[in-house]
Each structure stands twice: as structure tokens, then as C-alpha cells.
């Protein structure tokens, strides 16, 4: 496995995902506050949910990166890189809106406590935080720590995969926001 290519691919995916999300902050109030007929979230609520989910995922990513860097002292990184195989297919469903049931914890549900400007700033910081972790673990160290991920039966994933998961989750909700916008246009 070319770990450097994986890191670059994740970096590109993050940029694409976060750039797409950022564009939604410039939408008109009608689009941002449109309530879809299925009773789902408005675009503004979805943006807040993205921030909240990233917040909690980044706590796990931070812990994982610290542990991975500590493990670097005791584990054979070259062996881990040689044995690693990234199963992209098992992750792809995470980025597809409606691909499977997703029961999110209550603390990741939007409460309307932040304004759009605050959410935009926080999401921008989260993007840079992800890039900093990729820079910190630039030689493959992110393989040296695995953490449980119960969503879509991913089981144990390494720190890079957690960052990719975060980016895929963002993509999932970009699709949801596009669906809202299309329904709003039709009405």
C-alpha cells in the first residue's frame, strides 16, 4: 500500500468536501431555511449537524493521533505499511445519503444555538485541524492506532480512515442539502 498516496487522496477528498460545504453558507435564506416535506432538517440545521459530528469525530481523531504517535516508538511502522490494505469499498456507503440506517446520538443533533457565521468559522477550523493531523502523521503513523467505529459495521479503523470517514459523512449531507434545494425549487 502506498501510504503517501492514501494521505494525498484523503487530503483531496477533504478539500472537495469542505469546499462544497462552504458554498452552502452563501445560499439565500429561502434555501437555508426550507423545511423539506419529509420533515427532515433544513440546510442550516444540516450545516450545524456537520459541525457537531465533526466536533465529536475530531475528539477521537485527536486521541487516535496521539496514541499513534506514541505507538510509533514501540511498533514497526514499515511492517504496518506493508501489511495495510485500504478497503475503499467498505467506506463508500458512508458518503451516500440514505444508503443505510444511521442512528445518530442526540448530542449530534442541531439545536439552533449557533448562527451561520459561527458554524462556517468552526467548520473551516475543523478542515484545517484535519489537515494538521495528516501533516503530523505524514509518514504512515496513523496506521498505528485503531479505534472502534460502529457505523455501517466498519468495526476498527485507523486514524486516516477516521479522517476519511469524517469527509465522507460531510459528502453524505451535501447530497441531503442538494435534495432540499431541489425540492425547494420545485415548490
UniProtKB/TrEMBL annotation:
Membrane-spanning ranges: none
Ranges where the DinB-like domain occurs: 30-177
InterPro entries per UniProt: DinB-like, DinB/YfiT-like
Domain of life: Bacteria
Protein name: DinB family protein
Amino acid at each position: 500500500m502506498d501510504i503517501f498516496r492514501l494521505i494525498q487522496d484523503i487530503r483531496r477528498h477533504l478539500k472537495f468536501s469542505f469546499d462544497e460545504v462552504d458554498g452552502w453558507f452563501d445560499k439565500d435564506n429561502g434555501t437555508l431555511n426550507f423545511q423539506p416535506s419529509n420533515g427532515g432538517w433544513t440546510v442550516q440545521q444540516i450545516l450545524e449537524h456537520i459541525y457537531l459530528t465533526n466536533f465529536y469525530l475530531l475528539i477521537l481523531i485527536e486521541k487516535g493521533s496521539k496514541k499513534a504517535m506514541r505507538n510509533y516508538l514501540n511498533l514497526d511502522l514499515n511492517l504496518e505499511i506493508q501489511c495495510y490494505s485500504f478497503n475503499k469499498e467498505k467506506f463508500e456507503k458512508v458518503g451516500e445519503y440514505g444508503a443505510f440506517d444511521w442512528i445518530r446520538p442526540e448530542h449530534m443533533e442541531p439545536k439552533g444555538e449557533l448562527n451561520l457565521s459561527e458554524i462556517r468559522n468552526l467548520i473551516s477550523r475543523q478542515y484545517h485541524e484535519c489537515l494538521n493531523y495528516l501533516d503530523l502523521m505524514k509518514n504512515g503513523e496513523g496506521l498505528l492506532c485503531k479505534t472502534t467505529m460502529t457505523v455501517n459495521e466498519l468495526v476498527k479503523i485507523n486514524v486516516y480512515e477516521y479522517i476519511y470517514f469524517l469527509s465522507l459523512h460531510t459528502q453524505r449531507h451535501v447530497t441531503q442539502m442538494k435534495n432540499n434545494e431541489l425540492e425547494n425549487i420545485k415548490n
